[in-house]
Structure formats: structure tokens, C-alpha cells
TrEMBL record:
The keyword Repeat applies. PANTHER family: PENTATRICOPEPTIDE REPEAT-CONTAINING PROTEIN (PTHR47926). This is DYW domain-containing protein. One of its GO terms (molecular function) is zinc ion binding. One of its GO terms (biological process) is mRNA metabolic process.
Length: 800
């Protein structure tokens, strides 16, 4: 009986293989073909048996390199240290391997050993690989030391090392230093330019990224390649430059790049972010063999365009096909951009992540934290953050930003301070969020400290950071500092201009806001709807009626903007504050859209200023109909009746609000002394220095009465005796805060306070008198604007 042919064949192969001599080339071939770590360990045993590891360093080097391919860093390390005299090439393989396998400290330690404990000298590869390790570590100090060493050893102008340094500085958010390295390199190539394109995009310098790519396409610089095109797509997507995206698509087709999967995936993301989800869908259909990355891009595209049903459908198809989803799949599925109405979906995704163990991935927990913050589910968001085993910088940023956006500024600042204690280095996103928190509560001392942090980290060149600084200083009362920073900025975007114009408006500097607006028009930056709103606001608080009317006309007729409710409300406010109430009403009647609460609210506020009860009644009736749950309108109407001593009508309005169970926001005032915030409420006696504060208040009242001050009691809401009314006005929160400021600071020191509501007429007059008799500058930020009191005069000109 004969054996089957297959067995005979395999037997023949086995005999042939057995006869192959165990030469150097034989083992090198097996190393290249190894597909599992177990194959390599068996080969290592054979190499030891045949004494090839000790005698042939090239085989040792190849085996070390292959160990890193399987993330077997311990095997590679042990093999390296078994070599008595490793050469520079083997050192470089190990440094690169550690860096590529997320062992940056091991790479840096080995480089230090190479430089200090051997006779070998690092070459350009050594420096490029160790700088890459420093980049993944994110340590600016180590990177700067390595940069200095490279310059000393003569590699400062080396193209390969230079490209690694450019990438390093971009990864630690120092784009200014990346540009300096780039500009000094005598040679350039496509890889270097691709690093610049990608680095600018990742640092939110999207225009610069596109500019570099444009230079390559125009032929002024090295020839672009497929990587160049892919690298610029995120920048185009973030700017939502649809036309440019179409041009890049045509360029890709012309150059023969169109069929590449990675390019199509990038284009799917681009068109999705531009709102062209159908084009993205068509591109997705062009991919014959769809991989997980392209599916992730399409899921994310559907989600960010509100097509949640399609994103969930594609996600289910992925699961049904047996494909193992990644953390990127889940992140794309989470409706971060349009969370409202999708609370149940978010909970389902969260449950899926817990069940399959994906919630521990930092990107997933960060995305869920972000979406819960946007849904104002702050307890859930914080729980996720606290339970994260690995808190990345992105997760810290998500939580801090969430607190800031939801008005929980104290929690944001507290978490930022915890982050500092944990030695987590901030990036521009972190400082932008914390500056916003400082701006909200007027925490100038902390804002100044963050400014110092920005300088030490060289973040000033980041346009978003500098813009946030301008906004913070303006909202904390330091408008001059804000303008100085604005003038120092080499490049400004529309948000920067808007922040400075808005800052001038807050401080009542209408003419300065107008001048800056016209300067913006002459620049290359185009105004937005928010720009016009900021200018109109500035005009309304400076009594610039003619100028405001001209700005509104320019917005509509010259720039083609369709006014929003806020723009109409500003125009009503401009006319109303100037006493032109009839014109304001005519403007409302002529509006092409139905006027909403902001418009009627502006008219009601003007009626309060000019004591027009009849028109106030018309406006309030509209407001009670359109926004019946807003307590502010009831309070304002009640005040208007009280001014006219129509106490029964005032009481009637208050009674309606009471029946609706509407509660007035309690007034409170914050003052910062020695970097410590102190908050006061009306009649507050909880402060440790309460007795001294009230004693100071009594002393000041006596001095001011002698100087001719009379308490303004017309807006007190009840028909009380005048003496009782005066006592009611005496204990307003801003008076308590100012009194505390006077006893807690040196004579002549400026006092700054922040009131959560509009400052009342009596407190305004009281502060004017006080600034004169105490010879102090008192800066008050209320809900509407800033008031700078000096020598008995307010910067608002009593026009607020």
C-alpha cells in the first residue's frame, strides 16, 4: 500500500529543509519572515546554539529590530545588553525602538548612556530618534537640552535632525520655535514641509498649514506628495473651506492619488465637517474594501451632521460584520457636536463602553465627559473623569472647559489648580479655558498668574491664547493692558478683533470701539455678525445714535448680513437710551421679523431710564406673553411703577410673579483681596470681619451725608417710610464689598468689584461720592458694563 502524494511531497520538503545549511543568510531570512514573537524566541535559541549572536552583530541588530516590531521591548533590551561592544547602529535601533514603542524615557536614558559611557559619538539618526522620544514624552526641558546638544555636536542644521526638532516643538505647542528651526535649515525637502503642514494643523494654525501646502503646489518649494495632501485636509476641514476642499479633490484626481484609501478617508472627514455629508457618503461608496478607519470617518461624519440614525446604522453593520470596533469608532459615534435631544443615545453608548471595557480608553472617556458637560450633566461628567485610570491632558481640558462653559468657574479653577499640583503641563486649550473662567468672575490675580504661565511656556504666539488674554483683561477691568496685548499681536483673527471691540464696549469707550472697527475693515480680516453686534453694543453704551444707525446700515446693505434678534435689540437700546422712545417703537414696528423678548426687553429698559410708564406697560405686556417665566421683566416693571410711586401697580406685578413661583436672582458682589475672593450678598453678616465692615459703612455714611449725599430711594419696591428705605439701600452687596475693600487695602489703592446684576441708581451715586471723599479709584463691573469711578465722576457719564 503506497503513501498519499501529499505526505510524500511534505516529506520531500522536510528533507530538503533539513539539508539547508544553518548559515548567516538562512537565519536572516527566517528573522524577516517571522510572524509571531514565539518564532523569534525560537530563532534566538537557535542563534545562541550556533554561536551567531556573539560573533555577528548584524544578526543581533536585525533580531533586536524585529523584537520591536512585536512590541517586545524587554526581549530587545536584554538582547542589546548581552552584546559586549554594541556599535552605533545597534544603539540607534534600540533608541528608535523604545521611542516607537512608547518607552521614551528608556530611549532618552540609552542615549545618555551612549553619550557619557561609551567612546561612540551620536550621529544624526541618534539625535532624530531621541528627539522623537522627547516629543512623545512632551517634556520641553529635555527637548531643549537635546536641541542644545545637537547644536554642540554639529547637527543643529542637519535636515533629518531639524525635521525631528520641528515635529517636537509642534507637539509641545511651541509653533514659534518650530518656525525658527525651520527657517534656519539650509536644506529643505518634502518630509520637512509635510511636518510643517501637519504641525500647523495640529496647533490650530490652519491658515499657515494651507499656506505651506499652497507654496508646494505652486512649485515654489519641494514637490508635494500624497502625504502632503493628506496632511493639509484637517486644516481645510476645520476652516470649513468647501471650495478649497473641492480644489484639493480635483488635484488628487489629476495627480493619481484619488484611489488611495487614506486620502479618501481624509476627504470624507473634510466634506463632513463642511456640512456636505452627501458628498462624503458618495466618497465612502467609492471605497471598494472599506477598513475600520474609513468606517470611523463616515460614522463621525454622520454624527457631526446630526445624521445619528445613519451613524448608528453603520455602527451596527460594523458589529454585525464581526469587525472589532476601536475607541475611534466610539468617539465618532458620540454626538459631541449636537448632543441635545440625544441624551438616551449617549447613555446607551456609555453602557456599551462599560460592557465591552472600552470606557477605560482615555479618548472614549474624554468624549463622554465632553458630551455630558454639553448636556449639563456635570455629576456624570465628573464621575467619568474621576474614574479614568489614565487622565490625559485632553481629559483634564474637557472637564475644565465643561465647568467653565456651564458657569461653574470656581470648580474649573479648583480643578486647574489640582492639575498643576499633579505636574500636568497645560497646553493652549487649557489656558484658554481657565482664562475664560477668570474673565467670568473677574479673577484678575489668577489671570495675571496664568499670563505668567503663558509667557514661560511661550504660548503668546498662539492666536487663541492671546485672544483669550485680551478678553480676560478687558473683562477684569484692565482695558489698557488688553489693548497693549492686542497691539503686540502680529496676526489677529476675527475673534481677536471682536474681543477688543467688545472690551471697549464694556468699558463705555464707544469712540475707541468705532475706530478699531474701521481699522478692522481696512485689514484683511472680514467682520462677522458678532463684530457688528459688539460695535452696536458699544454705541448703545456711549450714546452714539447716528454712528450706531450707520453701522446697522453698513451691516445690512454693504456686507449683506441678515440681522439677528440681538442686532435689532441693540438698535432699540441705542434709540431708547438716548431718549428716542417713539423712534425705538417705530423701529420695532418696521422690523421684517416678529420682535422677540430681547427687542421688547431693550425697550422696557429704556422706559425705566426715561420713566415712561405708558410705553413700559406696552412692552411689559408683550414680554409677559412671550417670556412669562423671566423674573427680570416683572422686577423691572415693578421698579418702573415704584419710581412713579404707583405702589399698588408695583405690588400687583410682584404678586403675579409670586403666583408663578418666580424667584429673583439674589444680588451678590465679589471682591478679590490678596488673591482671595470674597463674596457678599445684600445685608450679609456672615463675613468674619462683618463688624468692621458695618462700622466702616456707618462712618462713610456720616461723611457722605455731610458732603451732601442723599440716598436714592425711588426704586425701592415697597411703600415704606423714607428712613426704612434708606436702611434697605444701605446694605446692598456692592456697598459691603467696597467697605471691605477700604479696610483691607492701603490708602489710595484701586478697588475692583464685580456685581452679578445691574448696579442700582443709589449704589451708583453712592460710589461716585465715595470715590471723591476717599480719593480712591473704584472699578465696578455689573451685568451690563464697567464703571470707573474717580473724583466723584463715573466713566459711563451716568449713561448706563
Amino acid at each position: 500500500m503506497s503513501l498519499p502524494k501529499t505526505i510524500l511531497a511534505s516529506s520531500t520538503v522536510a528533507k530538503t529543509c533539513y539539508r539547508i545549511p544553518r548559515t548567516r543568510d538562512f537565519f536572516l531570512s527566517l528573522i524577516r519572515k517571522a510572524v509571531a514573537l514565539s518564532h523569534l524566541t525560537q530563532l534566538q535559541a537557535q542563534l545562541i546554539h550556533h554561536r551567531l549572536l556573539k560573533n555577528d552583530i548584524s544578526i543581533t541588530t536585525k533580531l533586536t529590530h524585529k523584537f520591536f516590531d512585536f512590541n517586545a521591548t524587554l526581549h530587545a533590551r536584554a538582547l542589546f545588553f548581552s552584546v559586549p561592544k554594541p556599535d552605533l547602529f545597534l544603539f540607534n535601533v534600540l533608541i528608535k525602538g523604545f521611542s516607537a514603542n512608547n518607552k521614551p524615557l528608556s530611549a532618552i536614558s540609552l542615549f545618555t548612556h551612549l553619550r557619557k559611557n561609551t567612546r561612540l559619538k551620536p550621529d544624526d539618526y541618534s539625535y532624530a530618534f531621541v528627539v522623537s522620544a522627547a516629543a512623545s514624552l512632551g517634556d520641553a526641558r529635555i527637548g531643549a537640552i537635546l536641541h542644545g546638544m545637537a547644536m554642540i555636536d554639529g547637527f543643529g542644521l542637519d535636515l533629518f535632525v531639524g525635521s525631528a526638532l520641528v515635529d517636537f516643538y509642534f507637539k509641545i505647542w511651541r509653533e514659534n520655535l518650530a518656525i525658527q528651526v525651520f527657517d534656519r535649515l539650509p536644506q529643505i525637502d518634502t518630509v520637512l514641509f509635510n511636518t510643517m503642514i501637519s504641525g500647523f494643523a495640529k496647533n490650530s494654525c490652519f491658515e499657515d498649514s494651507i499656506r505651506i501646502f499652497g507654496d508646494m503646489v505652486l512649485g515654489n518649494e519641494p514637490k508635494f506628495d500624497l502625504t502632503s495632501v493628506i496632511a493639509v485636509l484637517p486644516a481645510v476641514a476645520e476652516l470649513q473651506e468647501l471650495k478649497l476642499g473641492m480644489q484639493i479633490l480635483c488635484l488628487a484626481i489629476k495627480c493619481g492619488f484619488y484611489s488611495h484609501l487614506s486620502l479618501l478617508t481624509g476627504l470624507i472627514s473634510l466634506f463632513s465637517k463642511c456640512g456636505e455629508v452627501e458628498i462624503a457618503r458618495l466618497l465612502f461608496g467609492e471605497i471598494r474594501k472599506k477598513d475600520l478607519i474609513s468606517c470611523n470617518a463616515m460614522i463621525s461624519g454622520f454624527t457631526c451632521n446630526g445624521e445619528t440614525e445613519d451613524s448608528v446604522k453603520l455602527f451596527k453593520e460594523l458589529l454585525g460584520s464581526g469587525e472589532r470596533v476601536s475607541s475611534s469608532t466610539i468617539v465618532g459615534l458620540i454626538p459631541v457636536y449636537s448632543p441635545f435631544g440625544h441624551s438616551y443615545l449617549c447613555n446607551c453608548i456609555h453602557g456599551f463602553c462599560v460592557k465591552y471595557g472600552i470606557v477605560s480608553h482615555s479618548s472614549v472617556s474624554t468624549a463622554l465627559t465632553t458630551v455630558y458637560c454639553r448636556l449639563n450633566e456635570m455629576i456624570l461628567a465628573r464621575q467619568l473623569f474621576d474614574e479614568s485610570a489614565e487622565k490625559t491632558l485632553a481629559s483634564w481640558n474637557a472637564m475644565i472647559s465643561g465647568y467653565t462653559q456651564n458657569g461653574l468657574t470656581e470648580a474649573a479653577i479648583s480643578l486647574f489648580q489640582t492639575m498643576q499640583k499633579n505636574n500636568v503641563n497645560p497646553n493652549p486649550v487649557t489656558v484658554t479655558s481657565i482664562l475664560s473662567a477668570c474673565a467670568q468672575i473677574g479673577a484678575l490675580s489668577l489671570g495675571e498668574w496664568v499670563h505668567g504661565l503663558i509667557k514661560s511656556n511661550s504660548f503668546e504666539s498662539n492666536v487663541y491664547v492671546s485672544t483669550a488674554l485680551i478678553d480676560m483683561f478687558a473683562k477684569c477691568g484692565s482695558i489698557t493692558v488688553a489693548r497693549d496685548l492686542f497691539d503686540l499681536m502680529p496676526e489677529k483673527n476675527e475673534v481677536t478683533w471682536n474681543a477688543m471691540i467688545s472690551g471697549y464696549g464694556l468699558h463705555g469707550h464707544g469712540q475707541e470701539a468705532l475706530m478699531l472697527f474701521y481699522e478692522m475693515l481696512s485689514s484683511s480680516v472680514k467682520p462677522t455678525g458678532l463684530t457688528f453686534l459688539s460695535v452696536l453694543y458699544a454705541c448703545s453704551h456711549a450714546g452714539l445714535v447716528k454712528e450706531g444707525d450707520g453701522i446697522f446700515h453698513t451691516m445690512v446693505h454693504d456686507f449683506g448680513f441678515e440681522p439677528l434678534a440681538e442686532h435689532y435689540a441693540c438698535m432699540v437700546d441705542i434709540l431708547g437710551r438716548a431718549g428716542q422712545l417713539k423712534k425705538a417703537l417705530e423701529f420695532i414696528k418696521a422690523m421684517p421679523v416678529e420682535p422677540g423678548p430681547p427687542v421688547w426687553g431693550a425697550l422696557l429698559g429704556a422706559c425705566m431710564i426715561h420713566k415712561d410708564t405708558n410705553l413700559a406697560h406696552v412692552a411689559s405686556e408683550k414680554l409677559f406673553e412671550l417670556d412669562p417665566e423671566n423674573i427680570g421683566y416683572y422686577v423691572l416693571m415693578s421698579n418702573i411703577y415704584s419710581v412713579e410711586r404707583k405702589y399698588p401697580q408695583a405690588a400687583s406685578v410682584r404678586q403675579v410673579a409670586k403666583k408663578k413661583r418666580l424667584v429673583k436672582t439674589p444680588g451678590c458682589t465679589l471682591i478679590e483681596i490678596g488673591q482671595v475672593p470674597h463674596v457678599f450678598t445684600s445685608g450679609d453678616q456672615s463675613h468674619p470681619q462683618s463688624k468692621a465692615i458695618y462700622a466702616e459703612l456707618d462712618k462713610l455714611t456720616g461723611k457722605m451725608t455731610e458732603a451732601g449725599f442723599q440716598t436714592e430711594t425711588t426704586t425701592v419696591l415697597h411703600d415704606l417710610e423714607e428712613e426704612e428705605k434708606e436702611l434697605t439701600m444701605k446694605v446692598h452687596s456692592e456697598k459691603l464689598a467696597i467697605a471691605f475693600g477700604l479696610i483691607s487695602t492701603e490708602p489710595g489703592a484701586e478697588i475692583r468689584i464685580i456685581k452679578n446684576l445691574r448696579v442700582c441708581l443709589d449704589c451708583h451715586n453712592w460710589t461716585k461720592f465715595l470715590s471723591k471723599i476717599t480719593e480712591r479709584v473704584i472699578v465696578v463691573r455689573d451685568a451690563n458694563r464697567f464703571h470707573h469711578f474717580k473724583d466723584g465722576v463715573c466713566s459711563c457719564g451716568d449713561y448706563w
